[in-house]
């Protein structure tokens, strides 16, 4: 795609010009400060740990946040313009 844009310089965006009157955007760091792997010898051990952290763990669980995080889902969101013209 970069090569295509270089062939058509008039298609390049001027970010400063495009961003005039746009709202400020501050991207927060959502990365965890630490991740660890926890291994369980038995399902009983896994179930005890699940009770301890008060979160369900199943064979399909790949990760959890502690404490439990409220993860926003964006797949059902739609952005529209308020401009009716």
**What's the rounded overall pLDDT mean?**
84
Series of H and E elements:
HHH
Question: Can you summarize the main beta sheet?
Answer: none
For the CA atoms, what is the radius of gyration? 23 Å
Distance between the ends: 33 Å
Residue share in helix: 10-25%
Structural class, please? mainly alpha
Shape: elongated
Low-confidence spans: none
Strand content: under 5%
Summed up, the helix count is 3
* Total beta-strand segments: 0
Task: Report on this structure.
With about 80 residues, the protein is mostly helical. It has a domain at about 1-55. The chain has helices at about 1-5, 15-20, 45-55. The longest helix is centred in the middle third of the chain and has 11 residues, at about 45-55. It is elongated, with a radius of gyration of 23 Å. It starts with a helix and ends in a 32-residue tail after the last helix.
Describe the secondary structure blueprint for this structure.
Blueprint: H1 2-7, H2 15-18, H3 43-53
Quick overview:
With 85 residues, the protein is mainly alpha-helical. Helix content is 25%, strand content 0%.
Properties at a glance:
85 residues; mainly alpha; elongated
């Amino acid at each position: 795609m970069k090569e295509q844009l270089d062939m058509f310089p008039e298609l390049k965006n001027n970010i400063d010009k495009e961003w005039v009157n746009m709202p400020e955007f501050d991207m927060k760091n959502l990365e965890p400060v630490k991740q660890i792997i926890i291994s369980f010898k038995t399902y009983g051990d896994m179930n005890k740990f699940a009770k301890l952290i008060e979160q369900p763990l199943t064979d399909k669980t790949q990760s959890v946040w502690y404490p439990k995080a409220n993860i926003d889902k964006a797949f059902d969101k739609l952005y529209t313009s308020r401009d009716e013209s």
